Amino acid sequence: MESKAIIAENLTKFYGKARGIDGLDLEVAPGDFFGFIGPNGAGKSTTIRTLLGLISPTSGKAQVLDLDIEKNSREILRRVGYLPSGSSFYNGMRVRDILKLSADLRRKNCDAAAAELCERLQLDRSRKVEDLSFGNRKKVGIVCALQHDPELLILDEPTGGLDPLMQHEFFSILQERNQKGTTVFLSSHILSEIQRYCSRAAVIREGKIIACDSVDRLAKTGARRVTFRGTLQPDALPDVRDWTETDGTVSFLYNGETNRLVRTLAGLDVHELTIAEPDLEEIVIHFYQKGGEQA
Ligand SMILES: Nc1ncnc2c1ncn2[C@@H]1O[C@H](COP(=O)(O)OP(=O)(O)OP(=O)(O)O)[C@@H](O)[C@H]1O
């Protein structure tokens, strides 16, 4: 069987009666820069924690780096770089001690990589962790995940708390790693960053994967965002979503026949017309989140 960085089949985790994930199928190939998109509570962290063996699945199976998640959790954790969505560290420790502890757990000397990452992310290693801001604590987690140069990075909402400059530097580091062969799997609800950096993505909703494809194909839909100055009744056209009308500007997502749109607009007094491809954010919100069907 072809090797996969991550493969999950019918993976299910219930917390008592509460759904975490429910029958989740997922495949991530080695070398992918993979985005995992979903709204709050969709099951992103549950998926990640189950894949790493930190919590046990209720049913289903999965392998990470060809290792069984239930039998080989320790080996998986040793080989993966994991950034949890919220990190907590022992108070009283300085950043350099935390980084050293994390490296020692993997029996690796990561001093040079840690120094370079801290320099690029502007993280002062002499500071005590409890004195750091939320964003700087996030950077400590990032360096812990990256310093041992793992073959697979699993990053749970990595950019929360980072300012735009730091986000840019962080993604530059990930891109460099990915070009050298590291597989990157990152969860996010910020669609623009997934669209910008990831080559493939899966959309999770209510514990299930509802779409998984290349980002280009996910973002392709027949729908167009139509915007113009003028007036139009919302029911004048079929297949219209996300209708807004403010200050004489009408805007909607149209997924119907082009001829019908043109004929309808031709009968109106229309100014400043634009017909554009919606971005991934609009597509996920309007075509995946509601019914789960793609346009
Ligand atoms: N320890 C727990 N006990 C009970 N229910 C839980 C527990 N952890 C998560 N859940 C539930 O499982 C579902 C999925 O949560 P999860 O944290 O995996 O979502 P998420 O996609 O990571 O969300 P977010 O973007 O808000 O972090 C939610 O309904 C959540 O309430």
Summarize the structure.
This protein is of the alpha/beta class and 295 residues long. It has helices at residues 44-51, 73-79, 95-105, 111-121, 134-146, 164-179, 191-197, 215-219, 258-266, 280-288; strands spanning 6-15, 18-28, 33-37, 59-64, 67-68, 80-83, 152-156, 183-188, 200-205, 208-214, 224-229, 240-246, 249-254, 271-276.
Describe this structure in words.
The structure is a single chain. The protein is an alpha/beta fold and 295 residues long. Helices cover 33% and strands 29% of the residues. The strands form three sheets. It has a six-stranded mixed beta sheet with strand order 6-7-8-3-9-10, sandwiched between helices. The protein has a four-stranded antiparallel beta sheet with strand order 2-1-4-5, with helices on one face. The longest helix is centred in the middle third of the chain and has 16 residues, at 164-179. The two termini are 33 Å apart. The model has no long low-confidence stretch (mean pLDDT 90). Adenosine-5'-triphosphate (ATP) is lined by residues 15, 18, 20, 38, 40-46, 85, 189.
- Our estimate of the beta-strand percent is 25-35%
Number of distinct helices: 10
Largest sheet: 6 strands, mixed
What's the count of strands? 14
> Topology as H/E string?
EEEHEEHEHHHEHEHEEHEEEHEH
Organism: Aristaeella lactis
Protein name: ABC-2 type transport system ATP-binding protein
Keywords: ATP-binding, Nucleotide-binding
